[in-house]
Amino acid sequence: MKKIHILGIVVIAVAIGVIFTSLQSSATYSDFTEAGANPETEYHVVGKLNKTVPVQYDPKINADQCSFMMIDNKGIEKQVVLHKSVPQDIQKSEQIVLIGKMQGDVFEADEILMKCPSKYNDGKPQV
Amino acid sequence: MGTIGEHLWVGQLGNAFIVLSFIAALFSGIGYYFYSKEVLTSEWKKFANTAFSIHSLSILGIAGTLFFMLFNHYYEYAYVYQHSNNEMPMQYIMSCFWEGQEGSFLLWAFWNVVLGNILRKTIDAKWEAPTMAIFALVQVFIASMLLGIFIGDYKLGSNPFLLLREHSEYSKLPFLNIPDYLTKINGRGLNPLLMNYWMTIHPPTLFLGFSSTLVPFVFAIAGLWKRDFTTWQKPALTWTFFSIMILGTGILMGGAWAYEALSFGGFWAWDPVENSSLVPWLVMVGAGHVMIINKNKGGSLFMTHLMAIASFLLVLYSTFLTRSGILGNSSVHAFTDLGMQGQLVVYVLTFVFLCVVLLIHDKLIRVSYVMISLLMLFVGITFGYKINLLLTWLALSFIITIYSYVKFFPKEEEEESLYSREFWMFVGSLVFLLSSLVITYFTSIPVMNKLFHMEKAPIKIADYNLWMVPFTIVALILVAVTQYFKYKKTDPKQFIKHISLSGILAVVFGLSAVIPLYFLKDYSLAKSIDKWNLISYGLLFIAALFAVFCNLDYWIRVLKGKTRHAGSSIAHIGFALILLGALISTSKKQTISQNTSSKNVASLGENFNAQKSLVLSVGDTLPIGNYLVTYKGKERKGIDVFFNMDYFTKDANGKLVKAFELSPRLEDNPKMGISSHPDTKHFLSNDIYSHITYGVVSDTKEVKKDAYKEPTNFVGHMNDTIFADNAIIKIDSITTNLTEDEYSKNDSLLIVTAVLKATDINGKVYRATPKYILKQNMVMPDEFVLDELGLKFVFWKINPNEGSIEIQMAEKVSNAKDFVVLEAYMFPFINVLWLGCLVMVIGTIVAIIERRRLNKLKAQ
User: Fold this and answer.
1) Which of B607, B41, B333, B728 is nearest to A64 (CA)?
2) CA-based nearest residue in chain A for residue B102
């Protein structure tokens, strides 16, 4: 057996390792219902901010926490506690992706990604 | 409907250039193709070269026309309307040019033309035709991106000279109905987030980097085509290292931009857009090294072709990723879909197809492959099943590639020795290729979601780090030792002797740094996965030191300090320093803005302890890391609101001395909303980095400072706390003038006094004694005013069953001081990273100069 073959086997082994572990470990996009069924698992939940309910943020009490209502893509609305300061553009967001776990009836999120109408794209006409 | 004052001729001129550039590239490609067949040699050569010159001039013409339109504010054109306005400073006109997709494709085409002409003038006659034929083909594709014409229902490309009233999104704008609308409108302007000097230098450098990957690619394809696997490599080598240098610089500029101007809180976030420039660079570095093996010793032919080709294909693939809108949720700065998704896929697949076809040396197999591919394309277009067919085709192409490699490719007779330089350089290149594949795989998760109908979320930064650190450790060890191997065969004893000094130094210095950094405190506190991380950080640290020492040693002892020959050693030192700086500054990044003013943390849930932010009111002085910070106030300049902070240190006598100022800002951007920009103080050994995570940008000047706000009601027990803007108030005790018995006996006056202790920010305690007065079962309103703190209390209810009392509190408007929420980090030794960047670029330049000098010497 040549050394090059051993190298080839190592490369293939690493490749398979990467594919398997990433498929096993990485979270999936989901909704509140599924996240509620598996409170130990981290999920990425996609949805929209309920803009009729005010976003609660009181930095005097805790600057690293805010709370709001989000409606997921299945139409389920839940309270979200985000362990970060309130994103400045949250009222303008079109879509939100939250990363976190469901704790009882509250979704505890560590990360938030927002899609705002004109962020980094060419922008729709604002008439 | 007529319109007044439109400059239609400019767009027509621009469109003429676009069509001309497309057709000229096509003719030039055809010309070079026949020229390469060596039929009617001289005439085809002239034809092809002329066509390429016309193509080049047309690209310059398109760029010039676009500039002309931008300079003159011709808002009748959608691109000008979208990306510029009247107020724009001249230096940003350049940035407007490449802000949009069409402009950035044009920038790419421009650099290609520049490089293509240099290549054409400097290349050996033998390689001119085949390389330029491929080059022209690539230009046909890029020029098609600008066409913006409809073929049936399908739109090919996106045209920068589209009129506003022809644009699908803008054509409904109401002002377009006014004939002289041009006198009334202003452009929408450049995204102010991009109005900084990084935007003027980063994109051109990065796109030059993308363009530069094309040259090794065309050489490798030409090599496959002409079945000459070796002679192209020498001229291509300089180009490869040029590409490594430019692309590397472009990537690092991107990192510096993210760190200095955007609030990522770091210089690298494994964002798909960042990855898409890193991956081609990794592959290009691998390609450069296997080409060096080939030049010095021969062999590694398949890998040189594979990697030189892969780098450009990966540029195309990442263009597809970032331009097609497929990344959607997973990236903050992916472009939106301009409807070019299909076109970009076709573009990538065409070149994969071309490579595989050229790789097959058996005529029958080749014809079958072409036929099967075309058949599958036909079935896909007419009957659907596109995804299944695509996957089948990719698998087929992969199998054929492997088969062709085994069957047709020239291979080494002799196996490389374990003690040879070529073996370990090969392994190193393989590590680079493999790590680039892993990153590509991770970045491609949104594509796989689409292909396999999955719902996988993007890979997290921590997982990228977890996977990349081991690759990096291996790469660094190879960077350290490989040069001490000789080509073909090395004496093992000699080799050990050479590296032992650096090895000992690295272990001694490494351990003495790593143990206090990661193991004394952190290790015992860490959970299992973090324990592994700490071990890998320690190994990475030692490996990086090892690489630095080995290369220094090689430069000093083996090369006798001659800089001219030491390009690779210098570049390798730079590479190791970059990783060392990245490691220390990221793993020992300290959040110095712990929230010291937070009042009620325990009630917020047990799993909440990640205090990152500091709340600062105007005039407050709070500890932040080794400093004290005072928020002085904010000032608005244009759309920017600066939050000025003074940082103090204590001198020997304990007196506060001002150390520096930072003014992180919030950009109140009418187009994009509010965005935060950090401000960083650079020291030699660390950076103090800060950005605002929450602040009020509107200047609401309170007129009635003495007025009170709406009162708030508090229900409380003994010892409960009430938070006011400027004080913490405790219900200290409750006293009555009568006992319950006495009160029930006679109907007289009952007075219950709540004794409140209000502690202000400076720790001074005030007493407030609001009274609950009950006279003949009627509550008499009584207001207690605490003037010093601007607070008013009304004690108005007692709930005997709950044992609680209710107090209304009103605060003076002037009590609410302006405040901000600040996040601040200390990045230790981040300068090692920037120094490494500089050293690596210098090393690469030295190597390129030396290579050119040697090539010239040989030519004489």
Assistant:
1) B607
2) A122
Residue type, B707: A
> Is B825 a residue whose pLDDT tops 60?
yes
Q: Pick the residue of A56, A62, A74, A82 with the most B CBs within 10 A to test the interface with B by mutation.
A: A62
The alpha carbon of residue B364 and the mean position of all alpha carbons in its chain are separated, in whole angstroms, by 47
Phi, psi (deg, nearest 5) at residue B679: -130, 135
Q: How far apart are CA B308 and CA B621, in angstroms?
A: 57
Instruction: Give dist(CA B551, CA B571) in Å, integer.
Output: 9
Coil, strand or helix at B776: coil
Q: Determine contact: B234 vs chain A, CB below 8 A.
A: no
Whether the CB of B333 is below 8 Å from some CB of chain A: the reply is yes
B86: tokens are: 């009247």
Q: Which range has the worst mean pLDDT, B325-334, B404-413, B585-594? A: B325-334
Rounded to two decimals, the ipTM of the complex is 0.85
Backbone angles phi, psi at B604, to 5 degrees: -95, 10
Closest chain A residue to the Cα of B100, Cα to Cα: A122
Closest CA to B20 of B57, B67, B68, B64: B57
Distance between CA atoms of B22 and B338, rounded to whole angstroms? 20
Q: What is the DSSP letter of B708?
A: B
Amino acid identity at B738: L
Give dist(CA A87, CA A65) in Å, integer.
11
Q: Write down the residue that tokens 């054409």 correspond to.
A: B120
Residues 177-206 of B with CB under 8 A from A: 188, 191
Chain B contact for A9 (CB, 8 A cutoff)? no
Tokens of B45: 């050569």
Phi-psi region of B311 (alpha: psi -120 to 50; beta: other; left: phi over 0): alpha
Domain spans of chain B, in order of start: 1-190, 460-588+832-860, 610-696+819-828, 712-815
The stretch B149-155 carries a mean pLDDT of 78
The DSSP code for B231 is T
CA dist., res. B731 & res. B720, Å (int) = 6
Q: Which residues of B824-856 are buried (b: 16+ CB within 10 A; e: fewer)?
A: bbbbbbbbbbbbbbebbbbbbbbbbebbeeeee
Task: Tell me the C-alpha distance between B785 and B774, whole Å.
Answer: 20
Which of B175, B191, B402, B409 to substitute to test the interface with A, most A CBs within 10 Å? B191
| Nearest residue, CB atoms, A65 vs list B434, B604, B675 | B604
Residue in chain B closest to A1 (alpha carbons) equals: B415
Judged against a pLDDT cut of 50, whether residue B472 lies above it is answered with yes
Backbone angles phi, psi at B799, to 5 degrees: -110, 90
> Which chain B residues are closer than 8 Å to A14 by Cβ?
434, 438
The Cα angle at residue B375 between residues B370 and B376, in degrees rounded to 5: 100
Kind plus residue range of the DSSP H or E element containing A1: none
Contact B601 A11 (CB under 8 A): no
Percent of chain B with pLDDT over 90: 38
pLDDT tens column, B257-267: 888 887 777 88
Backbone phi and psi for residue B707, each to the nearest 5 degrees, phi listed first: -70, 160
**Vertex B753: Cα angle to B750 and B759 (nearest 5):** 170
Local structure of residue B181 (DSSP, 8 states): G
Residue type for position B419: Y
- What are the backbone angles phi and psi of residue B250, rounded to the nearest 5°? -60, -45
- Whether B446 and B326 have beta carbons less than 8 Å apart is answered as yes
Interface membership of B32 toward A (CB under 8 Å): no
Nearest-by-Cβ selection for B821 from A19, A85, A99 = A85
C-alpha to C-alpha distance for B366 and B403, rounded to whole angstroms: 12
Q: Are B219 and B243 within 8 A, CB to CB?
A: no
Looking at the complex, report in whole angstroms how far the Cα of residue B324 sits from the nearest Cα belonging to chain A. Answer: 12
Q: Which domains does chain A have, with CATH numbers?
A: 28-115 (2.40.50.140)
